[in-house]
Structures are given as C-alpha cells and as structure tokens.
Amino acid sequence: MKTFQDSIIQGIPDILPKKKAFNPKLNHAPKRKDILSEDEKKLAVKNALRYFKKDHHIVLAKEFREELDNYGRIYMYRFIPDYEMYARPIDEYPGKCLQAKAIMHMIQNNLDHRVAQHPHELITYGGNGAVFQNWAQYALTMKYLSLMEEDQTLVMYSGHPLGLFPSHTEAPRVVVTNGMMIPNYSKQDDWEKYNALGVTQYGQMTAGSYMYIGPQGIVHGTTITVLNAGRMIAKHNEGLAGKLFVTSGLGGMSGAQPKAGNITGCITVCAEINPKVVQTRFEQKWVDIVCTDLDELTKTVRKAQKEKSVRSIAYLGNIVDVWEKFNKEGLKVDLGSDQTSLHNPWSGGYYPVGLTYEESNKLMRDDPDKFKQAVKNSLKRQTSAINQQAKNGMYFFDYGNAFLLEASRAGADILNEAGDKFRYPSYVEDIMGPMCFDYGFGPFRWVCTSGNQEDLDKTDRIALEVLKDIQKNSPEEIKEQLLDNIHWIANAKENNLVVGSKARILYADAVGRIRIAEAFNQAIKNNEIKAPVVLGRDHHDVSGTDSPYRETANIYDGSSFTADMAIQNVIGDSFRGATWVSIHNGGGVGWGEVINGGFGMVLDGSDNASKRLKSMLFWDVNNGIARRGWARNQGAIHTAIKAMEMEPKLTVTLPNEVDDRLL
C-alpha cells in the first residue's frame, strides 16, 4: 500500500519511467482524425511538454509526436501507472481531506479496466467520454487531491488540473468543466482539433465528472424504459414475455441493454461489431448467448418466441444486417431502438454495414470522407429496415444516442409525412419525460467508499425501507414509479449489477433522495455503515441537462434549445453543499448539442453533511421541476405545487393557461 501511496503523492515522476509497450489485449480507442496542420502538431507537442521538466523534453518530444501521428492524440502511455487501477477502500488513499480521498476513489473507478471502455486512453464510455486527456493530468490531479486541505478547491479545465486554490470549508472541493467552447467553435471538427491540441476534452456525462458506476447506471434506466415501452404496446396489460426487443451496441453504456432485457422478461437481440466488447459482456454474464451467424440468430429467436423464454442474445456483426435479415424472414420485432455512439459518428461511434471492424477503423483513419459517406449510407439502410418493421406494428424509440438526428442529417427517411418532425419519438418524449422527469424522478446514485459488500447491502435495505414507507401515502401519479423502483432495489443484489465500485442506483424524486440520504448519513454516524458514502446522479436527470434531442425533448415552449437550467443547476449545487460539481459541453447526443452538469456529495455522518444534503438535493431536483412546469408540463406543475406545500420558503412561477382559440 505504501508504494501505491508514494506514487500518488509523487504525481508526475522526476525520473522518467520506462516506456510502456502498447497492450493489444485491451480495448483501445480508434485512431482519431488527422486534422492538425504541421504547425499545430508542433503546438500540440509543445503543449504536452508543459507538464515535464526541460531535461526530459528531448526524449518526450519525439515520443509524443509519434503518439500524435499513430493515434491522433497524445495520451502519454509511458506514464500509465504501474499499480492496478481500481477504486480502493477510502482509507488506502493518502491525504489530509476525507472528501478528496472519496474523489480519488471515484476517479480510479472510472478508469478501472473492468469499467472503462478504453482505459489506456482514459476514456470511460461513449467512444470519447474522457476522464483526462493524458496520464500527466491524472498523476497531477491525484497528487493535488492528496495534498488538499479542507479549505482548498481544485479547479479542473477539461482534464487539466489548473491548481489548488484557497476557498472555504463549505465550498466544493473540486469544480470541473469539460469542453466549454465559445459557441461558434463547437462543431465536430472543433472537438477533433482542440482535443488533439490538448486544450479541451469531451467529458461525456459521468465520465468527466467522476460519477460513472459501470453499466449498472444505465441498466436501471434501460429497465424502466423497456418496462414502460412494453406497457405502451400491451393490449391486455400483459408483460413482455415472448416479445422481441432489437437494438445495438454493447459498449460502456449500451452494454446494459441485454441485462435490462432479462430483468424485464423479454427476448433481446443486441448487435455489436467489436469482438472484444462482445466477449467482455458474455464473460460478465450480461448476455446469455453469442451468435455469429444470421441463420443461427433467427432460429434462436424463433425458438425463444415460441417458448416465451427470457433470452439476451449478442450478435457479433452489424445491426443493419440483423434488421434486414429479420425483415426478409418475416420475423416480427415488438420493440426497437439503437444505442450505438452516434454522438460520435465519424470516429468509431458507429460502424457502417458492409465493412468489418478492422476495415472501418482503417478507413476512418485513411479516408475519413469515404468513411463518413459509408456511415450515411448505412444509416439510410438501417432506417429503411426499421421503417418496414414499424409498419408491422413495432414500437421504435430513439434512446438518446442521436440516432434520429444523425439519420436525418444522412438523408434517411426518418421524418413524418409533414416533414417537420421525426417519425419516431425520443424515449424522453414518450416515457422518461412525462412519466419520470416531470414528477422529479431521476437516476439517484450512491457509492460505498469502504468497498465492502456489507455496506452496500445495508444501503440497499435502507433505500428499500424508505421507498416502501413513502409509497404508503404517495399520490396516485407516482405510485407506479415507486413500485417499479421498490421491485428494482429489492432484486438489485440478485441481479449481480456491480462492476467496479460498490455502487447502486435507483430513480427517486426530491423527497425520496433526501430521505434516503438522511438515513445513510445517520447509519454512518451510528457506525452501521463503516465508511463515507458518495451521493451523485447521472446527468441524465430532471435538472442537470439541457438537451433538445434527449433530456429536454418533452419541452415544447421553444426553450429546449436554451441551457439556462443546466448552468443554474451547477451554480446552485455549488453553494448549497456539493463536494464537487461539473458542467460539460457534449454528452450522450454529441458535442455542441447539449450542456449537462453533475455533482458528487460525500456523506460522513456529520450534522454538516445532513444540512448540506437537504439544501442541495432539494434544489437539484426542483430547479428542473420549476423549469418544466413553466413549459406547461402538467406533471411538473403538479409536482411544483406539492413542493411549495412541503417547503414554505419555495415560491415557483407557474404558467397561466392560454385558450388556443384566442390564437
């Protein structure tokens, strides 16, 4: 342990470590677009050398230029730590500040090889969702956290630790920004250029805010989504037994889909072109069967439909081939979606039909324009096949990955007859928005920093007791949401959801989040939970994110393209007690398409933590409720009125209804 602690305290080593060999066994990021001029490449190397003493420059300059030429980025592979990367128990981290140790725990979980999509490129999920741009930034950040005192704040500029600044004990310990560009410089190629220069990064959502908890985080949201999609197509309140759900992607986020399909009781077919990813999900038992042949796949699905058995099937190949094969065979699909990383379509987020995985990676590097056209053609074919299934009664929804947006930009037949809207809804429009977000329900997370299963079991029991108690007297509008989450948390351990840190997620409103957090804090105080608990959430929530094609897709007053809510959210969390806060450009639907914010809060059993959690969690939800209510969302108006009845110091501006006949 001392060697590990010494390495953290050291930060960037004074003596150059040996150059690391490229590890072909790991899943690596594809080579990025060659977008810099020769002068800009020199600037990128110069920028990278800023982290190192001058006497190392002659060695590192050549090495960093080679990385830039070979991979399109400077990752500084030489400085990958020699110790194993995982979230250690909090007391194993060096430092003076308990909150800083908790943040180190969370950062290492994001980079755990079992958790991260491209761990050596510091990318947690989504193809480009980075924790840091390079390993020097990681080393320096961990050092600063080990030095941090209770009255300091670490400032993070897109992975770069700007420094430790004096603040005060009630201020956040870390403030994170990622990709905050001048608006006119927020196009896809701008990310490619400025990321290659080493001056910005794409933090995705929970990657760059140190709050990723492995695919469990999205298993829950996907379970809720598929469950409610099933209710929408049910004719006699029947469940999903024997019904077929077809989708794609088995990466850091999308890998949750087959697991969620099993939990909801349907048959899931999920296509993935990367064999390493398929193997990982199979070894984790997140898929039951792997098929490599379309005839074999069709036969397996028909058998499961006939027997009404629960099956999750990974198809190693392209999703377009699956859709077209099922159409040809007359195989009916009940639910359809897609979760390839289409926010990043030209750099490995989507692989076009007709090319192997290796051919695609070569083409995107050697002829990016030709690759781009191949992606567009593939999206046209995929949309055409989906349209054919939809005519036969399939319910298709965009799962927030920019599928509809990129298909429309590719010229696919994705618009309605009037040509003014997509022919398919975003899942937020039909499901998450009106059923969850408008009532304050969103993805509440916690992490047990002890690393002990016993602590996680205790938090599960506490959360279950709180939800059951709330459900007894809950309004009719939220009874189903509560029952779904009671069922979820009761079966969470049995479903074997943990990958990485001892973490859990459920959907709760402001009342539920505050009561669960209070109970955790009291249990820590009573030594029933042996170490601090970190609270957080996905940015994909009621208040944290402004995203017209996802989180705010069911905002219809014209404000869905504004970002006041996300900015106000992170400012408000900062002075109401969050341990760390983050605000990002980009996220699930792409660079320049969304602004999203997150937080982390450390519960240590103190009275101060109790005060902070009540203030911050109440705001963190009700900021979004107030905005959604002002947009005339009836569920949010109802929730805002209830919140004002509960808290006399809350006054929300509510809309007056307008008679459409006047217009």
From TrEMBL:
Domain Urocanase N-terminal: 85-211
Compartments, as annotated in UniProt: Cytoplasm
Keyword terms: Cytoplasm, Histidine metabolism, Lyase, NAD
Necessary cofactors: NAD(+)
GO terms of molecular function: urocanate hydratase activity
Pfam families for the chain: Urocanase, Urocanase_C, Urocanase_N
Pathway: Amino-acid degradation; L-histidine degradation into L-glutamate; N-formimidoyl-L-glutamate from L-histidine: step 2/3
Enzyme class: lyase
UniProt keyword Cytoplasm present: yes
Annotated Urocanase C-terminal domain residues: 437-640
Keyword Transport (UniProt): no
Residues that coordinate or bind NAD(+): 126-127, 204, 272, 399, 588
Domain of life, source organism: Bacteria
Function: Catalyzes the conversion of urocanate to 4-imidazolone-5-propionate.
NCBIfam families: hutU (TIGR01228), PRK05414.1 (NF003820)
Protein's recorded name: Urocanate hydratase
Species this protein is from: Namhaeicola litoreus
